[in-house]
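Work Package 3 (structural annotation) set out to generate three-dimensional models for the target panel prioritized at the project kickoff. During this period the team completed the workflow that converts sequence records into discrete structure tokens, so that structures can be stored uniformly alongside our sequence database. As a representative example, we reproduce one entry of 97 residues exactly as it appears in the project archive.
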Amino acid sequence: MDWSMILVFTGLSVFSGVIAGLGTLSIIRGLFASLMFLGFAMTILLVELGLDEILSFFLGQLIVMGSTYIYLRVMHPEILKKVKNEYIYDGPSRGCC
């Protein structure tokens, strides 16, 4: 089994989560970036186990992101309200100034 791609996506998960979290000053966006790359690592693992590439892409993301969503929905619904408020579009961007 080729573990190099799985390790690369797992490492990207850690570093991208930290960089996205610190760059946007948002733990929620950092966690989202981290979970996305963990989903890619799960995808590569499923491909290595012999599952179809296209099916494994959707299944990998569904396993990681779906299980996190279900956990938050059942155990901590107030966190999902914070996520919704953070991603609400509130008009055009004014730029950096």
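The mean pLDDT is 87.
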